[in-house]
Design goal:
CATH topology of the largest domain in chain A: Uridine Diphospho-n-acetylenolpyruvylglucosamine Reductase, domain 3
Radius of gyration of chain A: 22 Å
Helix content of chain A: 25-40%
Oligomer: homodimer
CATH class of the largest domain in chain A: Alpha Beta
Strand order of the largest sheet of chain A: 15-12-14-13-17-18-16
Mean pLDDT of chain A: 94
Structural class of chain A: alpha+beta
Largest interface: A-B, 98 and 98 residues
CATH architecture of the largest domain in chain A: 2-Layer Sandwich
Largest sheet of chain A: 7 strands, antiparallel
Number of strands of chain A: 18
Chain lengths: 455, 455
């Protein structure tokens, strides 16, 4: 169903050449990294907050869906316009408005790339902690929409812990500010965190005030291999129970190591499981931190523990992890990438459970991820249609296992389309009802990113 | 207006002897540390989540207000039952349900005292960062309701950064769970943070899953005095712009020092202003941390810098800060205790501005507080009725100044009754409208803590 003519005219008045109705361009904005797709009726490229207000008001008048989009790196279909409507690409709202190290904050537009912000902060001695693997090409707006995190979360938190305030436009077309320019505040309801992780279903973020952290000047990398996944998972629990919190604590299982070895060569160790551990801090503090973490990494089932002394050695240690993504792609173009999370002490049960599910459903599964948060990327790699079907059955069992272990569906990818049917597994009916009521409060006509997140 | 008889009967069936209608007891629950008061029609003392559900359903049926109460240590009148109704004192829901250091979490009922939890965590090597000055006698539920923080917030964050999940009862009487048992999650809207700081206006918290932090085994205390408040405020900004974040960075102005000196004797230094600074970490890391913070503390206007070497010296350094509260009480029983917050770099302007306001309105003002967050406790100490009237006029100018400096009304005390009329200064009309819509989503009949927070 094409857009009503009066809406097209209104959009043209607001956006001029920054409105696109051409099919070629609409196709480019019809999918994201989930590989799901649906054609939008139009794409707009706002450059100001006022344009976003006008857009939402105009679309609301005609009950036309509005789908916010960063750079489409998400894996859940959260930016796929399943009901058509207008995709709002924030790629041209990409100004860093203020870098303010004295107040440990930065004010940015949503289209700023995570990596560009980190580059701009480097000479000031600060960083913004969330660091998804897609950091060079994902946008801050997208990071906020999905509460996307990354390895550093284990020490520094996710966007919810690293955002002070937002400017946004609700589904009514009303612009508003939430939060503060201060590192502390107790002035009314926390709408800032409510918007973070809401995947564009409550409001469109047009500006973010981010909390910055001083960048430690020292970093040391350790690599530990273990007899089996269970031994590695127990080491993770030991590391997290002592006071020195690493700034990365990544787990790679035996299947993933074998894959990486085939693809990356002999620099990748063959083992039952591997942990990559990083500790940061001022240089004088690193020897004692490395010692504390090493002590915890040792124990039943440890096979090797290497501590990089140089930048080259650090790179060599990370080679296995780096070889992993291309290796997976060679096996299955239809990778199903999950990011379940459990309490750290349940990680041994999760990795064991995943192995059993892989065997029972006869599906190739590769597990790795941010073990310090109990956040495992469970990648199902179906090699043909039959295995693909088995993979989907396996997925339901995986979520079931995770919930039984007191975990939840998503650590950092969000819900989108992909996990929406599983939400009632993770959340009570009364919680979902409240979320729906909150949705109505922000978006009474349900025009913001319909069909996502809430079942 | 007394409670309807059917409601009294229903409450009696639910609570038995844990319902109190006696005036003597109602009086005890009619006020909080704001010294405002209003008599409730009944007080109940739940011991289970199910009782809280029944209570809210019963009160909703009769449109009777329900006011949650921790230990009444708040200073804003947030627990005063201005419209009568039933005060729900959580003092008997005070079980620590689970201490789980392996997953860095604790599950508690809302009536657990902050100090009791810290004591229980000590042997495990962990702590819960929020540490209001009232920590020995304030409840976790109250801390969550007001997003109460304390000195350690500068390094470790407020309750919003240190809570993983909640169980609660909405204004509909429906129980629900929000959040996770994991240190990371992106499964739907963040209702956990939305409830934190909502002062019992959205839901009644019946259980909290708190994020624990390993307790560093080392701590060093520094005391710096300065020629004037402006020099000290500039030192704060320098300290916060370097990478070693102190775990306390407290500011005390000249008026406060003079008061403390009169009350506490010669161990309290006389100076233009003073900073109390604490750094924590593993013992090996402390010398370099102390050196980094000392370097930043030095500069224009520094008069002395003392570093405590022993526990006794640490106590001596803190003596001025400790003498402050009793000293204030001797001067004015009607202290107006504000907790405004500004970006750290605006602190010099704030302290200068407060001095000008004190002179212009002819009011005694003592300023001290959590400078590392830009959070200043501005205490107006009227000594008679005329000064009390001038103090109230001064307050309006203070909030005006704070907003002009990009600050906000409250850092950690919340809004309650006291700051409610000033909310439109701090928040746009559209933001307040959204907060009201959220309130309706959780509490459609407006029975939860009416007359608080939202104007």
């Amino acid at each position: 169903m094409p857009l009503p003519t009066p809406l097209i005219e209104a959009l043209r008045a607001t956006f001029g050449a920054d409105l696109s109705l051409a099919e070629a361009e609409r196709v480019a904005y019809s999918y994201d990294n989930s590989r799901l797709h649906a054609l939008p009726d139009a794409v707009v490229f706002p450059t100001t907050h006022a344009q976003v207000e006008a857009l939402v008001r105009q679309c609301r008048e005609h009950r036309v869906p509005v789908i916010a989009r960063g750079r489409g790196t998400n894996t859940t279909g959260a930016t796929v316009p399943v009901d058509g409507g207008v995709v709002v690409s924030f790629e041209r709202m990409n100004r860093i408005i203020r870098l303010d190290p004295d107040n440990r904050l930065a004010i940015v537009e949503p289209g700023v790339l995570n990596g560009d912000l980190q580059q701009a902060l480097k000479p000031l001695g600060f960083f913004w902690p969330p660091d998804p693997t897609s950091s060079p090409w994902c946008s801050i707006g997208g990071n906020l929409a999905c509460n996307s995190a990354g390895p550093r979360t284990v020490k520094y938190g996710s966007p919810r812990e690293n955002t002070l305030g937002l400017r946004a436009v609700a589904g009514t077309g009303e612009g508003f500010r939430a939060g503060t320019y201060t590192s502390k505040g107790s002035t009314g309801y926390d709408l800032t965190r409510l918007l973070i992780g809401s995947e564009g279903t409550l409001a469109l973020i047009t500006e973010a005030t981010l909390k910055l952290t001083p960048k430690p000047t020292g970093l040391r990398t350790l690599r530990a291999t273990y007899r089996d996944v269970s031994a590695a998972a127990h080491a993770v629990a030991r590391i997290m129970a002592q006071p020195v919190t690493p700034c990365a604590l990544e787990f790679i299982d035996d299947v993933a190591l074998r894959l990486a070895h085939e693809h990356g060569g002999d620099s990748v160790p063959m083992a039952g499981a591997m942990l990559m551990i990083e500790v940061d801090g001022e240089p004088e503090t690193l020897p004692s931190a490395v010692e504390a973490v090493s002590r915890a990494a040792r124990g039943e089932g440890l096979e090797s523990l290497d501590i990089a002394q140089t930048a080259e050695e650090t790179q060599a240690l990370w080679s296995a992890r780096k070889a992993l993504s291309p290796a997976q792609r060679t096996i299955s173009p239809n990778k199903i990438n999950e990011d379940v999370v459990v309490p750290v002490s349940r990680l041994p049960e999760l990795v064991d459970g995943v192995k059993q599910l892989a065997a029972r459903h006869n599906v190739l599964i590769v597990s790795f991820g941010h073990a310090g948060n109990g956040n495992l990327h469970v990648n199902l790699l179906p090699r043909d249609d039959a295995e693909r079907e088995r993979a989907h059955a396996c997925l339901a069992d995986l979520f079931d296992l995770v919930i039984r272990l007191d975990g939840t569906l998503s650590g950092e990818h969000g819900i989108g389309l992909a996990k929406r049917p599983f939400m009632p597994l993770a959340l009570q009916a009364s919680t979902l009802d409240l979320m729906r009521a909150v949705k109505s409060a922000f978006d009474p006509d349900g025009i913001l990113n319909p069909g996502k997140l809430l079942p």
